[in-house]
């Protein structure tokens, strides 16, 4: 693994380790959600920022992962760990089925098609109430256990989710910073040149699409065993748009874009909630301003900040020597 | 000439775009190791021939055989993997990427099937990348761009972009057997043209089969083994340079009467 | 299959469809001019309804209220153009990202509307009295006729503007090719203003006319925007006639879907139609001019 990847990972592990000691316990709940959102945002990041596709329906895959894991572990009595794995596989299969026809679409058409998919899943959840509990949802989803230990507390789930995020992030960092990452961007930049360079454009795009849906499914499955309840309101089109915003605000071209976006756009609505009536307008304004002054997202600027801090510190060190 | 192996064989190629017939009954035979040129006035269909060979267009009629295999109707990526590399009339690179990344995409194209493997850090894939990086630098050295390997392609001069494109197509994995150059020196001044053609001659000496579309007849008249002349999508002549130069039809249509 | 019932559904469908036509047309106009899909389009509809309610509420006669509503929403459109579109277009921010900006605009407008008019649905008097007409057993609310008629008139006016007037023709040139238009001295900013103001007016006509028969709340904007977007895409995102076809289609499918199969089916039918069209003909149903 190259230096940059190691540095990035060390940084993330450091922050994640420090947070539970620095912040009061009730914040851990938000950070669990930041972790889940990061998983989805990372999937969208390579989809949008690298291969240049788009999805406005990722809440649909989030839902499939959540409901699949919930149903398998309740109605079919499958062990929660295993049902998570199955749920991810099921989501990936659906991702494949959606992804193949989606290959011929791009831009607004693809956006609408995926939006339609998300809305259809929402409808299906409501209509198939025998299976999904309809508007009421499913309760008493079993928690994850490891021997005698039950993953019930916020702290335990925080650790679980962020271990998963770190693993996925490690994986994606390697992919993004390898020639595969260049291929992904190349396929978006110039399909023709990519083809005559021997790259099978359709297969590559499809793989990335399916992977991003699998990540959303994973997030959903983890979610269901955390809250132990799933209901359709957590999987609306607003959620799809929120994840998209995370990628755009975080920085769609930057490896950290997903996580940075997830942090900002999970915390911000919580914080704004206190302002009630003017919350949504303020939210909209903040979005507009962020895009206006930081169109490439916040992550690139944060990186520059850190690098200059680093330089400052190392310079300072050599002076005092 | 007939006992040498025919690397590329085009038979009765016809390509239509709606009502327009861009190519009509074009035939071309290219022997391994030879240097072929395609000349003709603008709109004669020269680039269309390349587009059909490289799989970007589907011919209405006719067949293309390469290295004993029928390639007409195959996808561009598959054709590239069989060993056909092509450049474009205006240098087409990945403009928002570094020179090095441009090359790596071609050289490491094998890893496109190993999304999971790359992420997991499987050693044999890491080796492919490492080897690829070495080969990339050799290639960049060949075209004299190694010093600029971290520059972004869109910051390069026009001549450098042409050289990058050449290196990029040579980076094809597996190594290309046939190189299609589409007016590679247009937009270059005399000095740049000279240096570019030196690279092309070196490639030829190394045994690469080359087909070059060119506007400047003087460039190809001396070096080509055979010249194909196209006009309005049809073959006007297909012969050694000396014969082509004296071919009345070619002179009337294209060369002009004063070349004697 | 009761003919009367079907006719009822037909009229409801065309009425509802008219609003989608107006929103879709507005979306297409802005798209052609900026390549951005405006997801705040629906807010113009809501504004139209809200303003009508207030202006008639203070005693203004309906025709005057209507015209004033259109003028105010046109101004609002202008503001959106200057504050919400121009800064981003000038910085060459990618279109997809500007669509996200329009989501921000939608949020802001939604809040503004909520603060001004509250969360409850508004009431607007019918234009020509509340007596429902009857025609061979089919009940027609005269307001529906107003919706359809005014939509039609607005479309005719819009087409006249775009085809016959100098300004309109200049606008079309700009929409076709911004760069060349600039070379000809056509002012980019002016075109943007026209696009947004025109789209605003279109939306407002919809909102103002449908308010008496359909209840409009502060948060209905996104629903109209999305349906208008779908209608525009079905018709081919850059074809004004396509927007008309698409809007009517959505209205009819919505109406017949709900009427024949229940409310749950309505969404699925519209979405399924969209998906089928996208998969079969990504550039939209209405082929129109080749290469258009």
Question: What is the fold's blueprint, element by element?
Answer:
The complex is a heterotrimer of chains A (321), B (260) and C (292).
Chain A: H1 3-22, H2 28-50, H3 58-74, H4 80-102, H5 107-127, H6 129-132, E1 145-146, E2 149-150, H7 154-177, H8 179-189, H9 191-196, H10 201-227, H11 237-250, H12 257-272, H13 279-293, H14 298-320
Helix pairs in contact in A: 1-7, 2-7, 2-10, 2-11, 2-12, 3-4, 3-5, 3-10, 4-10, 11-12
Chain B: E1 6-17, E2 20-31, E3 35-39, H1 46-53, E4 61-66, E5 69-70, H2 76-82, E6 84-86, H3 99-107, H4 115-120, H5 123-142, H6 158-170, E7 178-182, H7 190-205, E8 209-213, H8 217-223, E9 226-231, E10 234-239, H9 241-246, H10 248-255
Parallel strand pairs in B: 3-8, 3-9, 6-7, 7-8
Antiparallel strand pairs in B: 1-2, 1-4, 4-5, 9-10
Chain C: H1 3-34, H2 41-57, H3 62-90, H4 95-117, E1 133-135, E2 138-140, H5 142-164, H6 166-176, H7 178-183, H8 188-210, H9 221-235, H10 240-261, H11 263-280
Antiparallel strand pairs in C: 1-2
Helix pairs in contact in C: 1-5, 1-6, 1-8, 1-9, 1-10, 2-3, 2-4, 2-8, 2-9, 3-4, 3-8, 5-6, 5-8, 6-8, 9-10, 10-11
Description:
The complex is a heterotrimer of chains A (321), B (260) and C (292). Chain A is an all-alpha fold. Chain A has one domain (3-236). Chain A is built from 14 helices and two strands, in the order ααααααββαααααααα. In chain A, strands 1-2 form a two-stranded antiparallel ribbon. In chain A, strand 1 (145-146) and strand 2 (149-150) form a beta hairpin. With 260 residues, chain B is α/β, with parallel strands linked by helices. Chain B has two domains: 1-83 and 177-260, 3-Layer(aba) Sandwich (Rossmann fold); 92-175, Rossmann fold, CATH 3.40.50.300. Chain B has helices at 46-53, 76-82, 99-107, 115-120, 123-142, 158-170, 190-205, 217-223, 241-246, 248-255; strands spanning 6-17, 20-31, 35-39, 61-66, 69-70, 84-86, 178-182, 209-213, 226-231, 234-239. The radius of gyration of chain B is 19 Å and the shape is globular. With 292 residues, chain C is mostly helical. Chain C is built from eleven helices and two strands; from the N terminus they run H-H-H-H-E-E-H-H-H-H-H-H-H. Chain C has helices at residues 3-34, 41-57, 62-90, 95-117, 142-164, 166-176, 178-183, 188-210, 221-235, 240-261, 263-280; strands at 133-135, 138-140. In chain C, strands 1-2 form a two-stranded antiparallel sheet. Classes of the chains: A mainly alpha (321), B alpha/beta (260), C mainly alpha (292). Chains in contact: A-B, A-C. At the A-C interface, helix 5, helix 11 and helix 13 of A face helix 3, helix 4, helix 9 and helix 11 of C.
